[in-house]
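Z., the sequence and structure:
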Amino acid sequence: MRIGFVFDDTLDVNDGVQQHIVILGRELARLGHHVEYLVGQTRHSPVPNTHSLANNVMVSFNGNRMRIPVIARRRTLQQALADGGFDVLDVQSPYSPLMAGRILSMARPTTGVVATYHIAPTGTWSLFGGKLLALVNGRTHRRVDEVVSVSDVAALYAKQTAHVDSTVIANPVDVKALLAAREQAGAKSILQLHGHGPHIVFMGRFVERKGAAIVLEALAWGERHGTFPGGMHVTMAGSGPLLGPCRQQATSLRTPIEFTGFVDEQDKAALLGSADIAVFPSTGGESFGIVILEAIASGAGVVLAGDNPGYRSTLLNDEDALFTIGSEDPDARARQLAERIGLALSNPAWAERLHQRQANLLRRYDVTTVAPQMLAVYRRAILVRRHA
């Protein structure tokens, strides 16, 4: 099968959608399929057969910073489609009418088209923007033969904005690669990162919705109430506009906190694997929870996650792993996270049961499980075209 992933953004960064198509594409290629990437402005792609088809500009949408295409030459798009000879195009959605939408309008009548939705709305304006974009893309979206959503949350977004039903197929995680990265880091390196005493790790962008401040609130609450065992220390990894304020907030705490800045992909598994508890307190805007699964596969003791719809879906509603992230009562969310950290560190049997449940999730989300599910959808889309 000749498969083309269509994505308006760049492959120069390693955010959620990029991980989805790169991990899935590599597995499809391993299975013998030919995979190409028709993407926005990309200079250093991690995968072969990448066609950089547009100049991009940075915008903010749905609580994220992303790049959208502004210049995509028609001849360039036509050439990529002609050279690719694709059986199916997998368009990452919602998509821009300036590039992906034009590719859909140019696709051969016999080419199957799948739209894969990744978005979870963050509020009324986000939902309104999605509906407006769906209205603009109405004509080209009629070219879509099958719709996939990476979670129930993304499926709801697709229904509310584009008024389409979808097949829910999870984001893929390359479990084998994560285990290999942990193995390559070595036990000595992981032990060094763990240090003495219980180790808590936060990893994410320092923006409001990723919740770094919630971790610091919980640490402050736990210190006031004697919730934590002695020797506990914290690593907060990532960069972003709130890094400075979080550093300042941490100066009032007794708990040792190291701010590492941005962590390279090759170092991520070792840091997550050194955690007794990995904490991801995102307040919303998550359609899935790839970072949760990365932490589990990397060997974190347990993962605690903010109770937003995307993370809840990924963790299959495991109440032990979820904590309140509502801003109406910051003291309540700080207390709940602090008490959950204290429970995980003081009750090894409880923590081990949670660890085993989380480890059992990996098979469900492994790319070797997800890829055949996507191939089945691709085949349906191709059949629709051939019988049209």
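The chain has a mean pLDDT of 93. Residues 2-172+366-383 form a domain with the Rossmann fold fold (CATH 3.40.50.2000).

Let me know what you think.
H.
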